[in-house]
Amino acid sequence: MGINSKFRTNVILADRDTGRMFSDKIRQVYLELPWFTKEADDCETDFERWLYLLKNMDTLERMPFKARKTVFDKLFEVADVANLTKDERIQYDEALKRYRDYKNTIDYAEERGMEKGLEKGIKIGEAKGLAKGKAKEQRQIAANFKKQGIDIKTIAQCTGLSIEEINRL
Is 124 in contact with 150 (CB distance < 8 Å)? Predict the structure, then answer.
């Protein structure tokens, strides 16, 4: 392999005078696809599969890999869209717009439904909490009246509790 046969070149930014790296956050990777020589069956990693697809996209009719993955299916979908005629592309874009509008409508309705449900749940929770608190307060008042020796029938009339409940206090 000569100097031009290197498949991957990692480039960094460096000060020309000192040779010191400018930043370890900025780098560029150049891939020369003609030097990538693996065939579909030889690709072992997703990175190699991506490279194979990028290099051979214009000649591929279908997915060459045994283990079809969603990400590669999506890549072929994008490639197919790129090869549509102008009229087909207009139809595709309109269908895609309708789909996205529909999806956004459903997502919005779902979000609003959740908000409404949450509001209703909070109201129900508050009402139950208030009722529970009021009942507890009534029992506490009844217990205090009972300790003072006030007639149980009078306590029942004042608190709204049953005589049986007051007797259990």
Answer: no
